[in-house]
Amino acid sequence: MNFKNIFLLLFISLLLFGTVCAQKNVNDFQVGESYKHAYDGNQYSLYLNEKQDSGITIYKYLAGDVDDDNDAYDNLIHDEGRDYLTSDDDFKIDKNSDNTANFTDYDHAEHGVVEVVSIDGEDFVVVFWAKDTSNTNNSDLISLLNEFNKDNNVKAVAF
Questions:
Q1: What letter does residue 88 receive in the DSSP assignment?
Q2: Contacts for 39-43 with beta carbons within 8 Å, 24 or more apart?
Q3: What is the pLDDT of residues 102-149, one digit of tens each?
Q4: Exposed e or buried b for every residue in 105-134, given b needs 16+ CB within 10 A?
Q5: 100-105 and 91-95: which strand pairing?
Q6: pTM
Q7: Containing H/E element for 100?
Q8: In the structure, what pLDDT confidence band is assigned to residue 154 with cuts at 50, 70 and 90?
Q9: For residue 55, which phi and psi values (nearest 5 degrees)?
Q10: Are 150 and 12 in contact (CB under 8 A)?
């Protein structure tokens, strides 16, 4: 068994041992206790490892611009999630048949998978990402995304 398989099995098994809430502001999504929490002033991320070269980021999906001074959107909820849903010169997105998409972010040297989920009439952009220099590939991230969906009883919706 190679390192990637061990890494994937370790994280999936850790996800199964228990869950904690990511943040109330992102509708109490359940994520594995093994994730490393970090807040960089713009977004809330959960890292898959100490190197912080892969992780999950959850955004509230908002159609319009957000006033960053609005307390309702402080700390976790920003509109940057939309950036993961459309291609441009520095960002390639390939939609999958299950309403998820693979992305490559050339500007930040990252890749990953993204989806939009809807809970109680609110939409969220869920991004599992990895730096291109990490040992994490998209198939690892898709497995983690599927486990996240199962733990939260959510399904990707079309975007």
A1: B
A2: 39/75, 42/78, 42/80, 43/76, 43/78, 43/80
A3: 999 999 999 999 999 988 888 889 999 999 999 999 999 999 999 999
A4: beeeebbbbbbbbeeeeebbbbbbbbbeeb
A5: antiparallel
A6: 0.71
A7: strand 100-105
A8: very high
A9: 175, -165
A10: no
